[in-house]
Write a structure and sequence with these properties.
Strand order of the largest sheet: 1-2-3-6-4-5
Helix content: 25-40%
Strand content: 35-45%
Order of helices and strands: EEEHEHEE
Oligomer: single chain
Structural class: alpha+beta
Largest sheet: 6 strands, mixed
Shape: globular
CATH superfamily: RutC-like
Number of helices: 2
Amino acid sequence: MIKRYEGNGKLSRVVEYNGILYLSGRAYEAGVTIEEQTKEVLHILDETLNRYGSDKEHILTAQIFMSDIKENFDRMNKVWKEYIEPGYEPARVTFQAETDMDEILIEISMTAAVKE
């Protein structure tokens, strides 16, 4: 059965199917630096994972969208490495993408397994 959570009429923040959580992209526009925004987005995603029975050790994939990958990749990656537990690194891809708000430097989407 497919379960949809936190729907707002245009998207669900989380969709669950067969023990897999599909998290929509999350961004945080209040932080000034890529480090601040990355930390806050990962915090939001971490809370979401925990709310639906998962955690960062169960992340399967991550898609990272950055407004300026050339300028910010290394600084974002430093924060990412501090977040991810060694031995639990997910498959990951990072893209440069335009956003609808200049303040948004990063958006991250994830899939994760529900803890057994």
